[in-house]
Each structure stands twice: as C-alpha cells, then as structure tokens.
C-alpha cells in the first residue's frame, strides 16, 4: 500500500478535481482582463468581454442548429477571427472541431466531410466553390453551411447560405458552456496531409490540448499579455494550440489571412507582435524581403519554427534582424510542437554558423511530453553519439487519442507503447535530438545513407539559393543519387555546375547532388515542401 496505508475518504470530488480543458483559459481570462484586446484583425478589435460573448453566441447558435455534444463541426477558414472563435465556440457546445485545410481539392474535402460526419461547416466565401463541389461528391448527407465573408480582405458575400454574423446574432449570450465531464473527451479532429493515400483523422482530447498549451508557455518563456501573430494556419494542428494558449496569459491574437513579408513586418511594427510560429520558409521570406517591405521595430520577436529543419544559413541571418528563433519539432499526432531546442547559457558565446548549427536541433521533450527517444527497429535506444540514426518515438499526454475509425493504423502507430513518428534522427551526447530525415527521404546511394537535410542545408548556404529540396533520383550504377530542386532569389543567377561544385567543396563526393533542377518548389499551405511530387519528377529526369 506504500506510505499511505489508508486512503479512505481521499476520493476524487467536484472540490478537488476538474477535467482539464483549454476552455477554462478563456473563462478565466474574461474575469481578469475583460477590457484587454483579445483578437485583432484590421477594424475587428475585440476585448476579452466581447470575444467571450461572440464565442458564447456561436456555441448557442450551433446548439440551436441541431449540433449535439460529440458531433463534428468543420471549418474551411483562413486565419481570421471566426476561426479563432470556432476553437472555443465549437467545444463550448460540446462538439468536436474539424479545421479543414483550405488548399485541399474538392475530392479530399468530400472525403473528410464524409469520414468525419460533419453536421455543419463554417466556410470562408473564397472557398465556397470548393465546398460546393465537395458536397456534390459526398456519399452521406450534406452538412449545413454557414458562409463567413471577409469584407476587410475584399472577400464579400455571394451566396444564399446563412451569414456568420447573422448566425452569431441569433445565439444566446447567456448560453451555458458545455464543459467536458471527462478530459479524455474529444476536442478536435485533424486530418493528415494524405500524401500517400487518404488522410487519417487525428483525434485530440481536452487534456492533451490543455497540457500542450501550458507546456509551450514554459518553453517559450512567456509572460503576461503577449501579442501573438497567427502565421501557423489554425487548420494545422489547431495552430499548434497557440490560440487556445493565449487566454491563459491574457494575450492578444493578431489574425493574419495572407502570409507575406509586409503583413508580418506591419503587424510587428503596428500591433507590437511579440511572438509567432512558422515554418522555415517564413523565416526565409523575411530574410530575403527587400528593404521597401520591411519595417523597423524596437523589440525582440520570439519565434517558434518547425515543419522542417531550418538551414543554418537562414538562422544566422534572421537573428540580427531582431528575431530570436527557437527550433521546435512535432507532428499532427502530437498536437504540433513536442520538442524544443532549449537554449543553454554555455552556448551564448557561439556566433555565426556554430550558433545556428545548435539552434537547428530539434532538442528535448517539452514539459508535457513524458518521453522522447530515438530507437532502432527493436525499440532499443541508439547510441547518443550524434552519428547513429534511429526513429523518434514519443510517449506522454501530448500524444493523440488515435486515428478516427482506423484502429489498425492506431495500433501500428502505438506499437511497443510509443508513438512512431517516422522521422529519422541522431541523438547528441547532451540528450538533444536532431532530425536527419524522414524515413522515406533518406537517399541510399551505393549502400551509403545520405541525409537529404544535410545536402539541403549545404546548398542553402549559397547566396543565390532561396529554397531547395533534395530527393533520390534513380541511378543504374548507384541505385539512387541526390537530385536537388532549387528556387533562386530574385536578381540572382547560378548554374547547375556552380551549385554542384559548391556542394562538392563542402560535402563528401557521394553526397554531392548529381543533378540540379531550377524551378518553383511545390509547397503545402504551411510552407512544407512537397517532396513526394519532386520524387516523382526525379524519376522522369
């Protein structure tokens, strides 16, 4: 029995236990900061009191439209206030939020609506044609549709669907929120990219989102009243849980519909943005923005970057501009970021490439993640020597419930008691993890493993290179050889021979790209380069 031999009367009660949920952050915030700015977007400037009223009206309106606890409500929205409101309003009526990627094709949207059994969809006017085509392809009953115009962006109403503001107006501002009775209740349903087949539905619970949000407060070293810019799409891991997190600190969410360098610099200069998250492509965009697109600001902006390992050259250039970058790493299945490159005092003297090389690590487990390991196929830990490679494994409260309606895939993902990430990494002696590649992106040339990330980081150091991606190209002699796809900066030139020579000076011969193709790289809405498309192209070269 241990030292507590008699626990009679030490039961879980309403007084000493409340299920964890991010809804509680907003309930608390409105009591403390009712007049503080909560959500900003052009002329839309709402205090916490106004934000909570709108969220409550949304929850009431959804319930009035027949949405019951456990039902799915989908959104097809960019980062605008309605999307932030849905992150609280949908669970406040007991429903599950399914934020759908706005760049998906109608067939995939139809599949998601069918598979998730969405009862209602909040859809931005711009994406109504895609939704209409998707509904035509659905096999089950079509969901109700609420149109969400965005007059500030010039996206005006053009349908007979009920309008979002009218829908809110019909809601009761005194509606009582549906709080979870069990923190394991489902909060959100997020579909993976589906690059190798139909997307899988990743299910989040209230507990995981709450703990993820709280853990990131610590990891980001946040204090009260931050100003957060929504660059990470809210349909991508629910914006890394950041919109759920901000009320815990009385923070302000600044919505950003179109991710451009001027929009980011303006938000920092005009709204005082202190934090944002984004893929390395965003950092690259800021580094390469012309002078006329930049704005001066007098504070340090804290940045979480993830999605792919940023090139050391990019990190080295952006820090002097006033951005402090922390590399984080995660997947949809772990609520977004789950590891962080926690900075150590002994690294402070490092400068240039040495400093950037450390910052490019994916790091250690965030506070809410119980364990992060790098293992071999037998689930044994690989040597922590910075050279041996293995697969990153997760265990903890920040791991999904599983894949919706797919027990086989869930069982495979959780084999051995860990979530299998599919990402290949090295483990440094100090315990920090660094991604070498996705398992499918490792290039095997003449029996030698080549990390595409290593080759990409090398090429990104060239002054003319804006972006690059390296994939395997079939080769009769070696089996596979590296093939580089490159986007050049405006006003810069480089030849295939020049880039190959540049790489050969810095890499082992077998790692040097044998082919360089100059073209715009295909990207997802979150800025990830779609290597599966490039692998297909490489086979035709």
Explain what the structure shows.
The chain is an alpha/beta fold and 541 residues long. It folds into 3 domains: 48-211, ANL, N-terminal domain (Rossmann fold, 3-Layer(aba) Sandwich), CATH 3.40.50; 259-439, ANL, N-terminal domain (Rossmann fold); 442-538, ANL, C-terminal domain (GMP Synthetase, Chain A, domain 3, 2-Layer Sandwich). The strands form 6 sheets. Strands 2-1-10-9-11-12-13-14-15 form a 9-stranded mixed beta sheet, with helices on both faces. A 4-stranded parallel beta sheet has the order 4-3-5-6, with helices on both faces. Helix 2 (48-64) packs across helix 3, helix 4 (106-116) packs across helix 5 and helix 11 packs across helix 12 (312-318). The longest helix has 17 residues, at 48-64. It is globular, with a radius of gyration of 24 Å. It holds the Pfam family AMP-binding.
According to CATH, the homologous superfamily of the largest domain is ANL, N-terminal domain
Task: Note the total helix count.
Answer: 17
Determine the CATH topology of the largest domain.
Answer: Rossmann fold
Question: Averaged pLDDT, please?
Answer: 93
**Spatial strand sequence of the major β-sheet:** 2-1-10-9-11-12-13-14-15
Please give the number of β-strands.
Answer: 25
Structural class comes to alpha/beta
- Share of residues in strands: 15-25%
Shape: globular
Ordered list of secondary-structure elements with their pairings:
Layout: H1 23-32, E1 37-41, E2 44-47, H2 48-64, E3 72-76, H3 81-92, E4 96-99, H4 106-116, E5 118-124, H5 128-137, E6 144-148, H6 164-169, E7 186-191, E8 201-205, H7 206-219, E9 227-230, H8 237-240, H9 242-245, E10 252-255, H10 261-271, E11 275-278, H11 280-287, E12 301-305, H12 312-318, E13 323-331, E14 336-340, H13 352-359, E15 364-365, E16 371-375, E17 390-395, E18 402-403, H14 407-413, E19 419-427, E20 433-438, E21 443-445, E22 448-450, H15 452-459, E23 465-475, E24 479-488, H16 496-504, E25 515-518, H17 531-538
Helix pairs in contact: 2-3, 4-5, 11-12, 12-13
